[in-house]
Amino acid sequence: MTRRLILILGDQLSRQISSLKGAEKAQDVILMAEVAAEAGYADHHKQKLALVFAAMRHHAGELRDAGWRVDYRELREDVPDLRTAVAEAIRAHDPETLVVTEPGEYRLWDEMQGWEEALNLPVMIREDERFLCAHQDFADWADGRKILLMEHFYREMRKRTGLLMDGDKPEGGKWNYDAENRKPARDDLFLPAPPEGADDDITREVLAMVEDRFPDHFGRLRPFRWQVTRKGAEAARDRFMTDALPDFGRYQDAMLTDKPWMYHSVLAAYLNIGLLEPLDLCARAEAEYQAGRAPLNAVEGFIRQIIGWREYIRGIYWLKMPDYAEVNELGADRPLPDFYWTGETEMHCLAQAIGQTIETAYAHHIQRLMITGTYAMLIGADPQQLHRWYLGVYADAYEWVELPNTIGMSQHADGGLLATKPYAASASYIDRMSDYCGDCVYDPKARTGEGACPWNALYWDFIARHEKRFGENHRMRMMVASWHRKSAKDQQALRKAAAAHVKSLTPYRG
Ligand code: FAD
Ligand code: DLZ
Ligand code: SF4
Does the pLDDT of residue 85 top 90, yes or no? Predict the structure, then answer.
């Protein structure tokens, strides 16, 4: 007899998942299903598909080893989506109820609201307790606030978790040590790399399946550098703590040619599918500080990304969906250029960020925010098309975290809910924070004329296009004033150069 059918989704690969609370091995059946609808709702990078399927298969094996009855369904054409897989499993096991932890994405959550009726079975959707801030707690925090500043939310989370707290005061006296972070990097630095990727029978079988079934998806499948088990993800976590964490803060914004990982953790993909837990990661980082092996600026910066940014972004997503997916306050509607799919552009910064994305299904935060993100905003790219791009191309991409980062933080398409000022930058920022410009055909210092870096004209054109809006923003007013101080001739030359650049782009045609 089966009492409960417990559906575990591909990004819920944790033994602590709430759908398993109170479950009994003798009476309950776990269902896991590979389905075309989940593999196809975005142009998922081939490595992301392989990571999710291989991790799902390993997780199912671990659950079986622990004594659970697992009904694991490999990808089949006649089982196109999760609801069909559940309906089949209901016929096979005749359960009294279906239990599932809420999906991370609104799309699937919305669909599940109709399952009880469609499946003619009680459906229990439980809250996802892997996150540190419940939906209601975030809504309570946001209630009545005029602006939802991450920094305020983060302080609450520090107090609530007790991380880096000295009684009721922040460790070291300050909440935020960013002033000591964000230095440019030299190219002779020692840079650690994540461990070798998984290479076992299950992973090899999945790689062959992805190669065969998803040849047209974004990116290269090999070399496959990802871990697909909890043990593998823990090894990557431990490598980060010893090799990279001490320099995480200092070089957090730095970019170097052909150095995709810098001192970043490359752990988001594992956190987001449940192979690592956020609080455990933060506690381990704090222990490195307490043992004197990593400085406070690095550890505070890392913990802030996880209990601050990650939780805040998820809170905004669930507070504002579904309308948030449609916002376009800057009225941007240009198609993305085709080089977002090929990496083939003479702009070295973009060729690097996109080339790495194709190769590794990874780019670090500043490459996403200040290279692919800022460029798209400057040319006035359609934020929804850009959102679909970001949702596919990274191994860690899930809408609850990708959408607010894209629409809000990187495109300012929410009009400033998430970031009070757009992350606009000209070539001087990229030249300062990277070594990209040295290897580029363009001159980062030239604004117009032969060989001038296109970012400079695009930057001023962006300010000019939105001068009314930005003139009313106290953090952008200075830039609008600088634009107005330029001569009419300079203004005209900059706008002409921007228009010529945009006209030269080939739009992506799918
Ligand atoms: P690290 O730099 O080592 O940071 C540590 C951890 O902090 C990350 O693993 C991540 O869990 C968390 N974190 C850091 N910054 C953020 C942030 N802004 N929002 C949420 N969590 C954060 N992150 C995703 O996990 N999935 C996405 O789909 C995603 N899409 C993004 C799209 C855009 C346009 C931008 C600007 C950012 C996006 N981010 C996304 C946030 C961030 O860039 C990635 O979390 C980070 O680059 C992942 O690499 P890492 O694990 O090496 O992170
Ligand atoms: C990302 C993903 C992919 C590629 N495939 C599956 C799948 O076949 N079966 C499954 O249960 N989950 C998959 N996932 C993860 C889901 O897309 C994820 O659970 C939802 O997007 C909700 O966050
Ligand atoms: Fe990018 Fe311009 Fe620098 Fe070239 S010169 S790398 S296009 S910012």
Answer: yes
Task: Confirm or reject: Cβ of 349 under 6 Å from ligand 3.
Answer: yes
pLDDT tens-digit map of 444-477:
999 999 999 999 999 999 999 999 999 999 999 9
Ligand 1 pocket test, pick from 191, 252, 310 with the greatest ligand atom count within 8 Å of Cβ, gives: 310
The ligand 3 atom at the shortest distance from the C-alpha of residue 350 is: 1
Per CATH, is 339-504 categorized as 1.10.579.10?
A: yes
Sorted by sequence, the CB contacts under 8 Å of residue 140 that are 6+ apart come out as: none
Cα dihedral 483, 488, 494, 495 sign: positive
Pair of tokens at residue 468: 């009314």
CATH architecture under which domain 4-126 falls? 3-Layer(aba) Sandwich (3.40)
Q: Does domain 135-209+223-320 have CATH number 3.40.50.720?
A: no
Residue nearest to atom 6 of ligand 3 (CA): 437
pLDDT tens per residue across span 429-449: 999 999 999 999 999 999 999
Q: What is the pTM of this model?
A: 0.98
Ranges of H-type helices in 249-295:
268-273, 278-290
Residue 263 to residue 251: CA distance in whole angstroms: 7
pLDDT digits (tens, 9 = 90+) for 165-215: 999 999 999 999 988 888 888 878 888 889 899 999 999 999 999 999 999
- C-beta of residue 34 within 8 angstroms of C-beta of residue 113: no
Q: What are the residue boundaries of the structural domains of the chain, listed by start?
A: 4-126, 135-209+223-320, 339-504
